[in-house]
Amino acid sequence: MRYVEKEDLIEVIQERMLDDSVELDDAILDGLEEKAISFTITYISGRYKTDEIFGTPVMRHPVLVQAIAMIVVYRAVRRNAARKVPEDYTDIYKEAKEILNNIQSGRQTLPGMPEITGDDGTTATLMYGNTTNDDFFI
Questions:
Q1: Neighbour tally for 72: CB within 10 Å
Q2: InterPro entries in the record, alphabetically (predicted)?
Q3: Does pTM top 0.90 for this prediction?
Q4: How far apart are alpha carbons 134 and 71 in whole angstroms?
Q5: pLDDT in tens, 75-127
Q6: Among candidates 34, 35, 39, 6, which has minimal Cα distance to 21?
Q7: CA terminus-to-terminus distance, the chain
């Protein structure tokens, strides 16, 4: 695993339950983590330099570690098709997505992480607009 450690996952789920979900195969956790990192990048790449955050060496931030750990745990539990995912794990997955959505929208920041900046050194801001023209003329 390259961004989260097993101890980070154990903060979200008991070790015994995690081991049962992945059948003691760390390669499964590695794959789930890579997919969770890719999922996270799709949320935060508009605001932060993800190549630097997830590059070598990685730049760990507690909020990102928590969100990625929550996603990995949910997907580890979900991979057991023999049972329905307990609501607790579904809730932590929703919470992780909410954290990433907050980062994406700027309601939550990642202090110390490299932000995308313009040529003049200012950070990027998103602008929204609406053209409600009944005649469809601009």
A1: 30
A2: Phage_Mu_GpJ (IPR009752)
A3: no
A4: 43
A5: 988 887 666 778 888 899 999 999 999 999 989 999 999 998 877 767 656 55
A6: 6
A7: 51
Using alpha carbons only, how large is the chain's radius of gyration in Å?
18
Phi and psi dihedrals of 75, rounded to 5?
-70, -30
Tokens of 95: 């919470």
Tokens of 17: 């339950």
DSSP state string for 102-138: HHHHTSS--TTSPBPB-TTSPBP---------TT---
Token pair of 94, please?
């929703």
Torsion, Cα 47 53 54 57, to 10 degrees, reads 170
Return the residue matching tokens 């997919």: 35
Amino acid at site 95: E
- Which residue is listed with tokens 């040529």? 119
Count the neighbouring beta carbons within 10 Å of the beta carbon of residue 18: 19
Torsions phi, psi of 35, nearest 5? Answer: -65, -40
Supply φ then ψ for residue 123, to 5 degrees.
-80, 155
DSSP 51-105: HHHSSSS----HHHHHHHHHHHHHHHHHT-TTSPPPHHHHHHHHHHHHHHHHHHH
